[in-house]
Design goal:
This protein has one domain. Strands 1-2-3-4-5 form a 5-stranded mixed β-sheet, covered by helices on one side. It has 3 helices and 5 strands.
């Protein structure tokens, strides 16, 4: 039963990736960064590019008076021996962000690394 539920959820994630059309600039509109993380793991190039389109993205954009969308780039740093698992670099960027104490709006970026598997869990081994 647990395996069936997991398979169904993964199918829904892939269906959302297949149905969504890239926006201008070739970025896939997503409401959840995990879709791009899985796409990067599955990609022969190890990369995926998207734009965040959720209510949270709208709130963040309003809060920082930003002029651009939240762009997400995911790249595979290392593929692990465990199938479907990798070390990923996830980068968020947005233009026109007005931070407190800054004289003018600017491009703001946030990067982080994560060990991630297609099933949403961390790898069992880092080899």
């Amino acid at each position: 039963m647990k395996h069936l539920l997991l398979s169904t959820l993964l199918s829904l994630v892939y269906a959302s990736v297949a149905i969504a059309q890239p926006s201008e600039g070739g970025r896939l509109p997503v409401t959840d960064v995990r879709v791009l993380m899985i796409a990067a793991i599955d990609s022969p190039t190890g990369t995926a590019h998207g734009v965040l389109t959720s209510k949270d993205a709208e709130s963040i954009t309003r809060h920082f008076k930003a002029t651009g969308p939240i762009q997400i780039d995911v790249s595979t740093v290392k593929r692990y021996a465990q199938a479907g698992c990798a070390r990923l670099k996830v980068s968020f960027a947005q233009d026109g962000v007005q931070l407190p104490g800054q004289a003018a709006p600017r491009r703001n970026t946030v990067d982080f690394g994560i060990n991630y598997c297609r099933d949403g869990q961390p790898p069992k081994s880092l080899t």
